[in-house]
Amino acid sequence: MTDETSRGALPPLPKPLWARAKALAPGVALAALIAGAAAGLAAHYGAPAMLFALLIGIAFHHLSAEPNSAPGLDFASRSLLRLGVALLGLRLSFDDIARLGWAPVLSVIALVAGTIAAGLALARLTGRGSAFGTLAGGAVAICGASAALALAAVLPRARVSERDVLFVVGAVTALSTIAMVLYPILFAAMGQTPAQAGFLIGATIHDVAQVVGAGYSMSETTGDIATFVKLQRVALLPLAVLAAALCFREGTSGFALPWFLIAFVILVLLNNVLGLPEPLLEGARVLSGWLLLAAIAALGVRTSLREMFRVGPQAATVVISCTLLLLLAALGFERLIF
């Protein structure tokens, strides 16, 4: 034992761990810097932070091939992504989801399953393949960019590229923002009650933030119901990820649940059974948001605009068609429920 250690100083990190952290630091710092800039722009302009992170990241694509930044960018786009998805489990409350009764719950399940099925069918019709259909359909059906990132973590990279993931994230974020503006106008013009409008907003808009924005822009009751319905969609995320992991597993050596999916379920149970303190939940929510923002920033850096445009019009057709089909189906269920 050295004199410094005996006086109570912390021992140094093991050399392999220190070397790993040193190698990852530049890329992770770049992703964090872009995430911070995106959050600042989002707060100032009232636009989605993930969209800013994606666009700023793409502008720094030239750094993706730099030896100093590449390892950290890969770590941020994979490991930080999975940790952020796992922490989403602390956002779910069984009490909130149960308040609307069984009819909306069953409707949401049908809408999510039908939208994913539509994504699969449309992807095959346009020649994009079932993996892309799962990615696009799941992002539209469940919770936008977060669902796309979660599904991308279990889909084989040979069948869904990073440019596919970025395209879907950008597309659902843009469509969700458009819907946040247009859907309240549409539903008000249709004469929907607060309960009806809340169900439709929660069942059709992709991202949670845009659901909240659209719902509370109409009324407090509409916002509350929209949030509850949206949470039901988010609650189906682990089932969708598990189904995707099972359907697209490679090889015949068996199947192991992704660690972040297990962590997601455990955190849901901990939150609902033990009743975790609100400061902890708020801290986890903020941390999850930052991790996902850094992950999308890193993904943006690693993909060029030229590569994104090579995705082709077929991909846009799948995402837009799924969005429109979800809206039409939700309008049909709304008439049956209310």
Walk me through the structure.
- This protein has 338 residues and is mostly helical.
- It has one domain.
- 77% of the residues lie in helices and 0% in strands.
Radius of gyration: 21 Å
Residue stretches low in confidence (pLDDT < 50, at least 5 long) are 1-8
Summed over residues and divided by their number, the pLDDT gives a mean of 84
Q: How far is it from the N-terminal to the C-terminal residue, by CA?
A: 73 Å
- Helical amount among residues, as a percent range? over 70%
Shape: globular
Jot down its keywords.
77% helix, disordered N terminus, 338 residues, mainly alpha, single chain, 0% strand
Short description:
With 338 residues, the chain is mainly alpha-helical.
List the helices and strands and how they pair.
Elements: H1 3-6, H2 15-45, H3 49-59, H4 70-87, H5 94-98, H6 102-125, H7 130-141, H8 145-152, H9 162-189, H10 194-204, H11 208-218, H12 220-235, H13 237-247, H14 259-274, H15 278-301, H16 305-309, H17 313-337
Helix pairs in contact: 2-3, 2-4, 2-15, 3-15, 4-14, 4-15, 6-7, 6-17, 7-8, 7-9, 7-17, 8-9, 9-11, 9-17, 10-11, 10-12, 10-17, 11-12
